[in-house]
């Protein structure tokens, strides 16, 4: 009998506390600014250095480029930039090594789908994923913030 009263006391005590659940998906879940979500890709900033694909531990990034068709301009022009989110672990390494910040993390995390084929995202889809970009990527970095040996 004492166990029943003790359990009822715990229940009554917790009924007066504020709720800790969210009405998801009607109201968005607050995430910290350093949350590692789905990437946003800006093809105009990309210099096709291939560092993001090389540092990726799961090899989920496909990046190809070709010579610039304008002979007066140097560098490469991006052809293909795809990410396979079926194996991507959202580790943030691709955004850390990008020298031009062409790829940045967002706070978006919803990738639920009924088909694995829908988890293969192309350059256009990644470019259109531009909501909730991290605040630190919205402003310019302070001088000396880029890593490297001194």
Automatic annotation (TrEMBL):
Biological role stated in the UniProt entry: NDH-1 shuttles electrons from NADH, via FMN and iron-sulfur (Fe-S) centers, to quinones in the respiratory chain. The immediate electron acceptor for the enzyme in this species is believed to be ubiquinone. Couples the redox reaction to proton translocation (for every two electrons transferred, four hydrogen ions are translocated across the cytoplasmic membrane), and thus conserves the redox energy in a proton gradient.
GO cellular component term of the entry, any: plasma membrane
Membrane topology category: Peripheral membrane protein
EC number: 7.1.1.-
Domain 4Fe-4S ferredoxin-type, chain residue ranges per copy: 37-66, 79-108
Residues the entry annotates as binding [4Fe-4S] cluster 1: 46, 49, 52, 98
GO molecular function: 4 iron, 4 sulfur cluster binding; iron ion binding; NADH dehydrogenase (quinone) (non-electrogenic) activity; quinone binding
The name this protein goes by in its record: NADH-quinone oxidoreductase subunit I
Gene that this sequence comes from: nuoI
Organism: Baia soyae
Pfam families: Fer4_7 (PF12838)
Required co-factors: [4Fe-4S] cluster
Enzyme class: translocase
